Amino acid sequence: MTDTIFALASGAGRAAIAVLRLSGAGCGTVLQRLAGPLPQPRMASLRRLRAPASGEVLDEALVLWFPGPRSYTGEDSAELHLHGGRAVLEGVSAALLDCGARPAEPGEFTRRAFLNNRLDLTAAEGIADLIDAETAAQRRQALRQAGGALAERYAGWATRLTRLLAHQEAAIEFAEDGLPNSLEDEMRAAAAALAAEIRRHLDDGGRGERLREGLWAAILGAPNAGKSSLLNALAGREAAIVSATAGTTRDVVEVRLELGGVPVLLADTAGLRETADEIEAEGVRRARRRAEEADLVIAVFAADVPPDAGTLAMAAPGTVVVANKADLAPAPAEIGGVAPLAVSARSGEGLDALREALAAAATARAGLSAEAGLTRPRHRAALTEAAAWLDEAVAAPLPELASEALRAAVRSLGRLTGRVGVEDVLDVVFGDFCIGK
Ligand SMILES: Nc1nc2c(ncn2[C@@H]2O[C@H](COP(=O)(O)OP(=O)(O)OP(=O)(O)O)[C@@H](O)[C@H]2O)c(=O)[nH]1
Ligand SMILES: [K+]
Ligand SMILES: [Mg+2]
User: Fold this and answer.
1) In degrees rounded to 5, what are phi and psi of residue 293?
2) Comparing 372 with 220, which gets the higher pLDDT?
3) 86-100, 306-320, 340-354, 401-415: lowest mean pLDDT where?
4) Which residues contact 256 (CB under 8 A, 6 or more apart)?
5) Is the CB of residue 244 below 6 angstroms from any atom belonging to ligand 1?
6) What angle do CA 130, 365, 203 make, to 5 degrees?
7) Domains of the chain
8) Which of 13, 59, 374, 414 is the most exposed place for a label (fewest CB within 10 A)?
């Protein structure tokens, strides 16, 4: 028997409507004490809510009743769509407490859904990401994951792995009986194939993780190239100080942007040069550090000044190279072997093309791939581990060691989805596995 829990599912604060959600074995009883006879399942029904102790009317509300297991949590659940005032919420919450329900812990509804097999851990993470999604691409990725796209793939791998393990155990039994068998060879081939498949999935350049967390981009260049002017133009506000004095920017100035559906943290940095000024020199160190950490570098040159050797090295493939101040001089055909984008932060010329180039670079580094990709370091760690255990199984000198390695691989996948336990799946597989014993 689970406690009956409740929580405000809509945003806090005064609002037209507030949604209180309830879940737990006693949910139906609580609902009846507040709202009278249970309404039709999943049909909105208008009810007077009364405090059970005093009979006082607390609100007139829409009530929804979701008997388990066809509910989000898999348990008996309900929703109360109240008028969103503070006194209403307090009154109804107090009445729920009187009926023995308790406030839910953070994530407790989804935790119960997981425990009742309504979703696996990756789908639960997808729901959390959906709530946090700021851009359309993030929303699509989160929806796909919440819908079980990763869960399905990982569960498929877990099933294959478990079968491998069963075959391996069978091979050991055969060996004990002194019978010849090819099961062991088949296991090694299949384990190698699965390891390769997992590695292909891992080898995605971190797109899903970057889309989820946002991309780091940095503007770099010589002093006075117009870096801060460009940041301001892209941000649409005067975020960084612009002046004709070289060495204006010292601290890293950050703005949040959306480029091609990818959230981007764009940083303006100090102009790169040798300097005796201690503060400016620290700014240059910070600029270089930011360049190393960045997923995307925008190298800015002034069209009217020949690029100096110190900053030329920044113009490399993979970098977005910009010749700014195109209103003063024609942009050179190439800088460091890369054709620059001709832009003027002053006149606005070329800014749309720059935005497009940045959006293309951002979606190439972060974004939806055709197949559902992993989205968290946790996924990467568990899958890397599983692939390494499969390698061990392939190379194991003794069947018992191969078996151990396969078990460890199953456990790695199990941690990822929160689902597979070695023993119970083995029971299932051995149940229909004929080894003549
Ligand atoms: N004509 C022209 N002037 C520009 C353009 N972009 C920037 N400037 C001017 O160039 C000067 C330097 O601009 P900033 O944006 O401060 O340059 P910065 O690269 O951030 O400079 P530091 O922070 O000192 O490294 C300012 O006087 C700007 O008004 C442009 O596209 N055309
Ligand atoms: K400047
Ligand atoms: Mg600047």
Assistant:
1) -80, -20
2) 220
3) 306-320
4) 214, 263, 264, 265, 266
5) yes
6) 90
7) 5-115 (3.30.1360.120), 149-205+373-431 (1.20.120.430), 215-365 (3.40.50.300)
8) 13
pLDDT over 90 percentage in the chain: 80
- Whether 302 is in the pocket of ligand 1, judged by its Cβ within 6 Å, is no
Residue 73 DSSP class: S
Whether 424 shows a pLDDT value over 80: the answer reads: no
> C-alpha distances in angstroms, 59 versus 54, 100, 224, 281?
14, 20, 64, 64
Q: At a CB cut-off of 8 Å and minimum separation 6, what does 64 contact?
A: 39, 42, 43, 44, 45, 78, 79, 80, 81
Q: How far is CA 252 from CA 33, 183, 268, 272, 297, in A?
A: 59, 60, 6, 13, 14
Give 322 Cα–ligand 2 centroid separation in angstroms: 17
Nearest residue CA, atom 16 of ligand 1? 242
For Cα atoms 315, 367, 125, give the angle at the middle one, nearest 5 degrees: 135
Residues 6+ positions from 373 with CB-CB distance below 8 Å: 201, 204, 207, 208
What is this model's ipTM? 0.99
Structure token pair of residue 306: 């020949």
Pairing label, strands 15-23, 296-302: unpaired
pTM of the model: 0.83
> How many A from CA of 360 to the centre of ligand 2?
28
Which residues are CB-contacts of 196 (< 8 A; sequence separation ≥ 6)?
A: none
252 and 271 in contact (C-beta within 8 Å)?
A: no
Ligand nearest to the CA of 325: 1
- Range in 38-42, 81-85, 178-182, 403-407 the model is least confident about: 178-182
Q: Assess whether the C-beta atom of 269 lies below 6 angstroms from ligand 1.
A: no
Rounded to an integer, what distance in angstroms lies between the CA atom of residue 399 and that of residue 79? 55
* Rounded Cα–Cα distance for residues 350 and 90 (Å): 56
For ligand 1, atom 30: residue with the closest CA: 325
